Structures are given as structure tokens and as C-alpha cells.
Amino acid sequence: MSYNIGLSGLRTTNQSLDVISQNIANVSTAGFKASRPELAALYSGGQPGGVEMNNVSQNFGKDGNKNFSGRELDMAISGQGFFIVKDQNGQDRYTRAGMFSKDADNFVTTANGMKLQGYGVNANGDLVPGVLTDLKVQAATVPAQASTSLDFVANFKADAPVPAVAPLDPDDTNTYNFSYSSEVYDSLGNEHTLTKYMVKTAANTWDVHMYMNGAAMGAPTTVNFNSDGSLNTPAGPVALTYDPSATTGADVMNVDLNLTGTTQYAGDFAVTANATDGFASGDLTGLRVDEDGSVSAVYTNGRDRLLGQVVLANFANPGGLSQADSTTWTKSFASGDAVTGTAGTGALGTLTPGAYEGSNVDLTGELVNLMTAQRNYQANAKSVSTADQLTQVLFSNM
């Protein structure tokens, strides 16, 4: 019986050494989770019969070190959750290794080609939640969009004097109180400069002269304020029309100038909003991942386009996952089904863009475990040797 006990100890210690060696070998592997051998005593007829490896558990409760790489598609999970990736056979796998890149078809993939899963967007660029898909980076140029509105909000200085010189001359600052330029775009993405000259004509009354690319756009717009400084008229948008076809070949521009929120207080002239819905065409310059997992393309025209949102998964018993390779797992009966959601919702952890999670192996602890396992191996080997000597003595005295 002592032979069997010693041999079981040697066998189990050898298996433990394999687990410890695997941990040490992956101390620098992104997303690796340290394993721990769990041993159990063997009994036969109520008598001790040795020891066996009962289970190898992995430590999902401890995060690895966060390594900042600066790479635009790298992501690190802090807390609970796994990235969902789809392998070449279409099977879902789960990983903590957040080092992603684009493949030749612009899909977001792991180093071995598994595709990151998330919520996609429809043709209008709106997120489609609830349906997992392969996240893909659209590298196409963003087409130009003609301006149809311009939000202009400012404070007209209440105690400004009526200019002594009239009529308006854009080259003579004595003929107007203030001026401000806004950029608008035609259907081809050409930029046009809309300059507004504000001329006070009486108390609480101003004329706003519009010039497009230096040319007057007809009669001025009269702006009236109430005695409390709030805007009275115009009550709605001011319709502006400009035909750039002679110079650019673009369509006629119809832009609504919205002055809602404009005031007349004693403070200095100041602009608080100057935004148009139009823009020039743009080429892809990079990608941006937000903390909620939203992946956006960034273009040369300053615009962003939402491409999708990373989805995380969690399990009632992560320790029950089946290991597919060193950094990916598949669900099992013991783990339960995946519960999915976006980062920071429910019990799911948060995302740190531009970083990845390293291994959570404690190298010092593993080296101590290694020495302990070696001592156990030596002890069991000694027990086998001692049993052999006792057997030889027994048979030599018979």
C-alpha cells in the first residue's frame, strides 16, 4: 500500500508542477489567468490510499496588471466580464486578452483571427442593440454633407452706440458694431464663409447684414429684443439662399440661420454657439474607443462615425468555463449561459481604451509553490525508496 501512496504523491506532484510551470511560462501573456491545482485524498475501504488531482481552478477574481499600449483598438477590462470572440468555426469564445487589430477585411480581430463581437449599426449609423455581430471598421471616405442649418447664439452689447456712419461698408468698421464669420458647406463639400455684420439702429433694434464669400445676400434681417434682453424677433429661422454653381458646380444652398437664445445684455459681444450641420468629405485617420465600448471612426474633416459597440459577457460560475487555449474559454454546463451587456452595466466591469490586461500570475508566489512541489516530490520519492528498502529487509529475513 505504501508504494501506491508514494506513487500517487509523485504523480500528483508532477501534475502540480505542470500547472505551476504553465503559470510561470505565461507570466507575460495578456489576459492569462493563473491556475491552481486542487488535490484530494484517496481512501480505500476506509484506509488512506494516497492523493489525486481533483481539479485545476483558475483565478478569475483577480485582475491582471493594466498595461497602457496606446494602440487604438486595445481594451482592458477592470472587474467582471469577458470579451466575446468568434473563432473560425463560428463558435463563441470568451477572453480577457484585449489586444485587437484590423484584419485584411477590416474586421476587428485577435492575433489569431478570431472576430470581436458587439452591437453593429444600421445604414443611418444608429446602434442596433440586442443583436451580436462581427465588429468591422468601415474605411470608406465620408461624403460631404451640405449645410441646411446654422445655429448662431450671441450676446449683442446692450449699451453699444448707433454707428455714426451709414450705410454699411464691410471695409469700414465705423459703419457696424460687430461682425462674425461662420463656415458653411455646399453639396460638394466646398467651404463658404458667411459673415454677419451687426448694426445697431435704435434701442433694442439691430440690423444683421449677411455676406457670403464677401457678397451681400440681399436686405438685412432686423433683430428686436425685449426690455429684459431676450430675443423678440425673428421668432423662427432666417432662410438664406446662395447659388455656388457658377464657381463650384454645387447645388443651390438653403441654410436656416437660427438665432434662438441670442440676448442683448450689458456685457460684451460674445458668441456662445456657431455650429452647422454640414461638413466637407473626409478620409479615415484613426479609430477611437470610448469607456462604454463604443467604437468610432475619426475622419480628416473632424467628424466621427459610430461603427459599433463592444459587448461583454459574464457567467454565474466563471470557474466552470472550459478552457479552449491559454487565454480563451467556452461555456459549459457548469458555467451556465453567458449574460451579455455593455461595459459598466449591471455586474459587468469597465473598459480602459488604449490598454490591455496582463497576466494575473504572482511570480513570487509561483516560485514558492514550485519549491514546495519539489520538496513534496522529494518526500514522496523518499517514501517509495524507504518502502523498497523495508521490502528488501523483509524478504531477506524470510
Automatic annotation (TrEMBL):
It is found in: Bacterial flagellum basal body. Transmembrane segments: none annotated. Its main location: other. The lineage of its organism: Bacteria, Pseudomonadati, Pseudomonadota, Gammaproteobacteria, Pseudomonadales. Keywords: Bacterial flagellum, Cell projection, Cilium, Flagellum. Residues 76-146 form the Flagellar hook protein FlgE/F/G-like D1 domain. This is Flagellar hook protein FlgE. The keyword Ribosomal protein does not apply. Residues 4-33 form the Flagellar basal body rod protein N-terminal domain. InterPro entries: Falgellar_hook_FlgE_sf, Flag_bb_rod_N, Flagellar_FlgE/F/G, Flg_bb/hook_C_dom, FlgE/F/G-like, FlgE_D2, LlgE_F_G-like_D1. It comes from Marinobacter xestospongiae.
